[in-house]
From TrEMBL:
Transmembrane segments: 228-248
Keyword line: Membrane, Transmembrane, Transmembrane helix
CDD domains per the UniProt record, alphabetical: PHD_TCF19_like (cd15517)
Protein name as annotated: DDE-1 domain-containing protein
GO molecular function: DNA binding
Domain DDE-1 span(s) in chain numbering: 260-361
Region (Disordered): 478-502
Biased composition annotated in UniProt, kind: Polar residues: 478-493
InterPro entries for the chain: CenT-Element_Derived, DDE_SF_endonuclease_dom, Znf_FYVE_PHD
Length: 620
């Protein structure tokens, strides 16, 4: 029965209470009648459990109180397919899959449960064999029995964000941050974070109360698609904020663009509406004007690794005015940037509410880009409170400094691409001086290593700028090696990334054939031998079940990079191999992935060249 509710309290005594009563009778020679009254257990029930434990104790007299336990107490769940230990193993597998950002959907969980039942030779309902799938009733009951699990809607997370936030990148960032702390003797008021966010003229409507059962429900907005305006905000660990800086999608900037905006705000314009190098230079002057610092009283400015922040002119200006710049590792700002952690989320919510109020007060009118500063004037102070700003610096471990703020579970997303540390001489081959070097490739050196397997070192992007020369350090990715029960799939030699698959088609076909052959009625799993204590029998059972689940559905794991992947650079218009280049050709190396490209084919800032696969937090 799907919604059965128990109507009696019979056989509801906890297992530990029954075992304690039996131990008093067996070890302390208490009478069954007195003990049954003491623990409120029926006499016949207690007598039956005492007989079972005495038989087990006679087979193995060396058992202690802790080892002399009952297999089960109360009514046996005859219709439950898996045992409690097996369900715990399945729940642990589901949790780990979700932690590494490859969680299973309800359908995939039902399919895995069916495969697990076949592999474990379990008795199951006929509907499972017909549909090759566990039933929805089983899934609902399984979730009720394991309250730590629930069906959630995941947030889309790019592979770059999931894999770049690893122990090595975070530890190197905090090492650089500690160095700056010691060198400049900073106080919370001297630590600043700046970041840009996009605001559009079309808000996301908040939830409303409406008639129950209605299928289509709307809320008024200005247009189908909005126009984006970039807003740059800087906050300090003390809770202060610099007036925002706007970038409008216009060719020329006019002062009336920010009319009605926050006091002290300024702006600029470019056709795209995004922050660019020339806009960031103007923002640098805006920041210096309001922070009031000098070389005698320097400050630290934390920012992400966006291209616009690498302007030499802006870095020189910061240096001349006593601003030390430290960048976050690429694709890690969602965890390390205080503004992203505690300010921009509430700010978007309050801005949407301000837009709803504006449209209700101005019926028939639409929000334009020139209304955004006025709306932000009322919404930003509600989000950028002293408590929220200080909380953002605290949860990111920046102020107060706490390099151990992130537990190991936070780095689970990098499990897919975890690789062992390379040798020390390999890591030394990539130094800071190689960042912007235009080199002529050596054909012999490259061709000698085409078949060797190596661990590719990753660079350190935590750039501390006190001079105008950026020097990213190159080192290896340090992540905890997590072994997989199944061999990693082979990958092609192309530099194009292949998306990892949780359940390969070949694996599907193999198990499909095996499942079809095993459709005959399975035999029950044999219980453990009587002379083996239950505690010893269950010692390795959970790990065995976990291994079985990983065999059925292996966790995704990227294969080691091959050496010739370093020498091949595929582009839409440039597919020539580094090893096959003509003497005299000029090549440039990406500071992030260390792959090579023709200097003529490279785009963007050649002094700090990054390929399109590694560029900042802007996704393709």
């Amino acid at each position: 029965m799907r919604t059965y509710k128990r109507k009696t309290e019979r056989a509801d005594t906890p297992k530990d209470v029954v075992e304690r009563a039996c131990h008093l009778i067996i070890f302390d020679n208490k009478s069954i009648k007195a003990t049954s009254k003491q623990y409120d257990i029926p006499y016949k029930t207690l007598h039956r459990y005492v007989v079972k434990l005495k038989e087990k104790f006679e087979r193995n007299p060396n058992l202690t109180r802790a080892e002399l336990t009952l297999d089960s107490v109360g009514y046996i769940k005859n219709r439950q397919v898996f045992t409690d230990v097996e369900e715990e193993a399945l729940a642990s597998y589901l949790k780990k899959a979700a932690d590494i950002y490859y969680g299973l959907t309800p359908y995939e969980t039902q399919k895995l449960a069916y495969q697990f039942a076949i592999k474990s030779n379990k008795a199951m309902p006929d509907s499972w064999r017909t549909k090759l799938l566990a039933g929805e009733d089983w899934l609902g009951s399984f979730l009720k029995r394991h309250s730590s699990l629930s069906i959630r809607t995941p947030q889309a997370t790019s592979l770059s964000r999931a894999t770049s936030f690893n122990k090595y990148n975070v530890s190197m960032f905090f090492a650089n941050l500690t160095t700056v702390y010691q060198r400049l003797n900073l106080s919370p008021g001297d630590i600043w974070n700046v970041d840009e966010t996009g605001i559009t003229t079309v808000q996301v409507p908040n939830r409303i109360i409406a008639r129950r059962g209605i299928k289509s429900l709307g809320k008024m907005t200005s247009a189908e698609r909005g126009t984006l305006v970039t807003v740059a905000v800087a906050v300090s660990a003390l809770g202060n904020m610099v007036p925002p800086f706007f970038v409008f999608p216009r060719v020329l900037y006019k002062s009336h663009f920010v009319r009605g905006g926050p006091i002290g705000c300024e702006g600029d314009a470019n056709p795209s509406g995004w922050m660019k190098e020339e806009n960031f230079i103007k923002y640098a002057k805006h920041f210096v004007q309001h922070v009031k610092h000098s070389k005698e009283k320097p400050v630290l400015l934390l920012l992400d690794y966006h291209d616009s922040h690498l302007s030499i002119e802006a870095l020189d200006y910061f240096k001349a005015n006593g601003v030390t710049v430290l960048s976050f590792p690429p694709h890690c700002s969602h965890k390390l940037q205080p503004l992203d952690r505690s300010v921009y989320g509430p700010s978007k919510k309050y801005f949407n509410r301000a837009c709803d109020n504006w449209l209700a007060s101005n019926p028939g009118k639409t929000i334009t880009i020139y209304d955004i500063p006025e709306l932000l004037k009322t919404s930003l102070p509600l989000a950028a409170t002293i408590e929220n700003i200080q909380s953002g610096f605290r949860v990111s471990g920046i102020s107060p400094l706490n390099e151990n703020i992130f537990p190991d579970s936070e780095f689970s997303g990098s499990y897919v691409t975890d690789r062992p540390m390379p040798n020390s001489h390999d890591a030394g081959n990539f130094s800071a001086c190689d960042v912007s070097t235009v080199a002529v490739p050596s054909i012999s050196d490259a061709s000698n290593r085409l078949s060797n397997v190596e661990e590719v070192p990753m660079p350190d992007h935590h750039t501390v700028t006190e001079t105008h020369t950026l020097a990213p350090q190159c080192s290896s990715v340090n992540t905890d090696q997590i072994t997989n029960t199944m061999p990693s799939p082979t990958r092609s030699l192309s530099t194009e990334r292949e998306s990892p698959s949780l359940l390969d088609e070949t694996l599907n076909s193999v198990y499909e054939a095996e499942l079809r052959e095993n459709l005959k009625t399975p035999e029950n799993v044999h219980p453990p031998e009587a002379n083996v204590p239950p505690s010893l029998y269950n010692l390795n059972l959970a790990s065995t079940l976990s291994a079985t689940l990983e065999e059925l559905r292996p966790f995704p794991k990227a294969a080691p990079l091959l050496d010739n992947r370093r020498n091949i650079r595929k582009r839409k218009k440039c597919t020539e191999s580094y090893a096959d280049s003509v003497p005299g050709e000029q090549w440039i190396q990406c500071i992030t992935c260390k792959l090579w490209a023709h200097s003529k084919c490279a785009r963007g800032n050649l002094m700090f060249f990054e390929c399109k696969h590694c560029i900042s937090d802007i996704e393709d």
